[in-house]
Amino acid sequence: MGIKVIAKVKDNVAEVKLLIKHPMQIANAKTNKTAKYINELLVKHGGKTVYTMYPSVGISENPFIKFMFKGAKEGDKIDVSWKDNTGETEQGEFELK
Amino acid sequence: MQRRNFIKVGGFMALGMLSPSLYAGFLEDHAKAFTFNSAPEAMGNLYGQAKSAADTKVELKVPDIAENGGAVPVTISTTLSDVVEMSLFVEKNPYPLIAVWEINENTITDFSTRIRMGETSNVVLVVKTQDGTLHTATKEVKVTVGGCGG
User: How many Cα atoms occupy the beta-carbon half-sphere of B17 within 13 Å?
Assistant: First the structure.
């Protein structure tokens, strides 16, 4: 697992690229694999939620996510967190450059 | 050890357990939408009988041909205001509902991600506005090698 973030601010708009290490595994009866995929992804900035996504196995392995939000400035921090269908979670704080 | 910590600054900083209650309640009401094998059923779970129409203010950027169905780049955006939710469907995937995005106050309605496509299919973007109406954009992507093998 692991979250990588590239985040830049221009004219108070933050552009955030997330790369999350996660198998986003599809259930497969032949190989006895059970589904394991991120089903909630949240990003907060200054206490406000700025990105809310409910993914499924339809999102590729090691998800890439890009989004933008207003009201940001350089040096601000964002809080990225996800939860998967097995209850596993990960959270990290990142600085906007 | 110190050096390793230094390298981590600005990158991944913390690993922790989160209480599920930190999350919004969408999945309590709509987790089932992700389990349907047909796009109309999944849309019905999300939006009931809401009116839906194609809208040029809704933009779905996908490649015409995807060589690798395992990671098809998608950008979804709209110039509509008062957007409350966006959702993405691949009609012929075993589970057509790919993802749902809730739109927050400061969110710009322009997202990119990579999706799985099992075979050539229509991709449908649905944008829901505050008045409850649905605005859609549809494009076909031809898939050379499918990406839904587990």
Answer: 2
B2-33 tens-digit pLDDT: 554 444 433 343 334 444 444 558 898 899 99
- To test the contact with chain A by mutation, choose from B108, B109, B122 the residue with the greatest count of A C-beta atoms within 10 A, namely B108
Selecting from B27, B102, B114 the residue whose C-beta is nearest the C-beta of A39 gives B27
Domain that holds residue B11: 2-145
Structurally, how many domains does chain B consist of?
1
B129 min Cα distance to partner chain A (Å): 16
Q: Distance (Å) from the C-alpha of residue B51 to the closest C-alpha of chain A? A: 23
Closest CA–CA distance from residue A43 to any residue of chain B (Å): 10
B72 within domain boundaries: yes
* DSSP labels, A55-84: E-TTBPSS-EEEEEEES--TT-EEEEEEEE
CATH number of B124's domain: 2.60.40.2470
Does A94 sit within 8 Å of B11, measured CB to CB? Answer: yes
Domains of chain A: 2-95 (2.60.40.10)
pTM of the model: 0.88
Contacts of B25 (CB under 8 A, 6+ apart): none
